[in-house]
Amino acid sequence: MTQPITQQRKAVSLISGGLDSMLATQAMLDQGIHVEGINFYTGFCVEGHTHAIRKKDKAKPKRNNALWVAEQLGIKLHIIDIIDEYKDVVINPKHGYGSNMNPCLDCKCFMVRKAHEWIEAHGFDFIITGEVVGQRPMSQRRDTMPVIQRESGAEDRLLRPLCAKILPATLPEREGWVDREKLFDFNGRGRKPQIALAKKMGISDFAQPSGGCCFLTDAAYSSKLADLWSARGERRYELDDIMLLKVGRHLRPRAHFKIIVGREEGENRFLEGYRKQFTHMYTISHPGPLVLLDGEANDDDLQLAAQLAARFSQGKGADTVRVELHEKGAAKRELDVVPLTNEEIPLEWYL
Amino acid sequence: MSHHQLDARRVLCPMPVIRTQNFVAKLPPGDTVDVLCTDPGALHDIPAWCRIHGHEIIRTQEQEGELMISVRVGASPD
Ligand code: SF4
C-alpha cells in the first residue's frame, strides 16, 4: 500500500503590520504550513495616510507595514476593503467601546468572521492571529478569546500560535496539522517574550505600534468623531468624513457648523481635493491656509469663519485681512475682516 | 495581450493598491496596466505588492503631481 501524500495545510494570517502577527505567521511557516496574509482596510487604519498628507512627514518612509511584513515573510498578502461593512461595527458595537471609540472586541470578531468567509471561499484550512492572552484590555483577554471564536463562526479553526499552549487545543492542533508543542504560551502585557522570539527567528526590523492599530484608539480623533455624530444628530459617517478627521485643525464655533483649517502645505493640498464639496475660503491679502466649512452657515457665520481663517493666516496681526469666499452653489466673493485674537477663540471651539 | 488603464487618483494608500489588486485579479498573465495615482505612497506600495505577487513593474513616471505606475501581470495566480 502506498502512503497517502500528506497534504500541505493552508492558513490565512491576519496581518496588522505589527510584530505579533509577524511572529505568529513565521511560527506557522516554520511548521511547513502554507500561509497567506490578509489585511483589512477599515478607513481608520493608521497606515500611510497622515504620512502621505503631512509634508513634514515626507522624509519618513511611507511603507505600508502589512505589505512590508508580508514581503519579509515571503507570503502573499490580500488587502481587503471593508470600509462600508465596518461602519456597523463602529456605530453599533455589541460589546461596546474601549477607552476611546475603539470597538476592539467587535472589530476582532468581525475581522475573523471575514477571514473565515475568505478561507471557505479559497479552500484554506484555518486562520491564525497574533493575539496574546492579556495583551490588550478589551479584545485580548482570556474570557474574550472564546467570544471571538464563537461570534466569528471560525470556532476551532482559529489558532493563536503565540498563546496556543494556554488555550484549549484547536482543530489544527488536534488533527496534527501543527505541532502544539512547538507553539507558545505568551500571556500578559509584557513584550519581552515577543522580542526574544523575534531575535530567535532573525526578525530585527519591525513596527511597534503603541496603543492600537487604528485611529479609533486615539483620544483626539475619537472626540472629533463623537462631535461629528452629535452635530449631525445621528451616528453615521462616510469615508470622506473619517479621512477629514485625520487632517487639519477642527474648530466648532457654532453647533451647526465647524471649520477645518489646513496646518501646513501638505494638508492644504489634501483639503483642496474637497473644495467642490464644501464651502471654503482662504486669505488673499496674506498667505494663509485653506479653510473648509462643514455644515450650514448664514452670513454671520461666514463672517465669523472668515475671521478665523484670518486668524490662522500670516495676516493675524493685521487690521484687516481680505478673504476669498467660495460658498457652495454661489459665486465667489471677497470679505474684508478683522482677524480674531486668541482671546476671542474659546478653547471649547477646538475639537 | 491587452493594455489597460486604472484610475486611482485622489485616493490615499492603501486604496491604490487595493484597486490594483482587484483589477489585476481579473487579468490574464502578460496584460499590462497603467495605474494612475496621486498619493506618493503608491510608489512604494504598488511595487511592494507586485514583488509579493510576482507581477512586474515596467516603469514609473511622475508628471505634475500625478504618478503612473505600469504593471505587467505575472504568471502566479492569486
Ligand atoms: S485598535 Fe482598531 S483595528 Fe485594532 S482591534 Fe481595536 S478597533 Fe480594531
CATH homologous superfamily designation of the largest domain in chain A: HUPs
Topology-level CATH name of the largest domain in chain A? Rossmann fold
How much is the average pLDDT of chain B? 93
The residue fraction in helices of chain A comes out at 25-40%
Q: Name the poorly predicted regions of chain B.
A: none
**Strand ordering within the main sheet of chain B:** 1-2-4-3
Give me the oligomer status: heterodimer
Mind summarizing the main beta sheet of chain B? 4 strands, mixed
Helix content of chain B: 25-40%
Beginning-to-end CA distance, first to last residue of chain A: 73 Å
Question: What portion of residues of chain A belong to β-strands?
Answer: 15-25%
Name of the CATH class of chain B: Alpha Beta
Count all strands of chain B and give the number.
4
- Rounded mean pLDDT of chain A is 92
> Topology as H/E string of chain B?
EHEHEE
Enumerate how many helices of chain B there are, as a single number.
2
Task: From the 3D structure, determine the CATH topology of chain B.
Answer: Translation Initiation Factor IF3
Q: What structural category characterises the helix and strand content of chain A?
A: alpha/beta
User: Which radius of gyration of chain A do the C-alpha atoms yield?
Assistant: 25 Å
Q: In sequence order, what are the helices and strands of chain A, one letter per element?
A: EHEHHEHHEHEHHHHEEHEEHEE
Layout of SSEs?
The complex is a heterodimer of chains A (351) and B (78).
Chain A lengths: L9 E5 L4 H12 L3 E8 L7 H5 L11 H9 L3 E5 L1 H9 L12 H19 L3 E3 L16 H8 L5 E2 L11 H4 L17 H10 L17 H14 L6 H6 L4 E6 L2 E5 L3 H8 L6 E5 L7 E5 L3 H13 L9 E6 L6 E5 L14
Parallel strand pairs in A: 1-2, 1-4, 2-3, 4-5
Antiparallel strand pairs in A: 6-7, 7-9, 8-9, 8-10, 10-11
Helix pairs in contact in A: 1-8, 5-6
Chain B lengths: L2 E6 L6 H10 L7 E6 L4 H12 L2 E8 L2 E7 L6
Parallel strand pairs in B: 1-2
Antiparallel strand pairs in B: 2-4, 3-4
The complex binds iron/sulfur cluster.
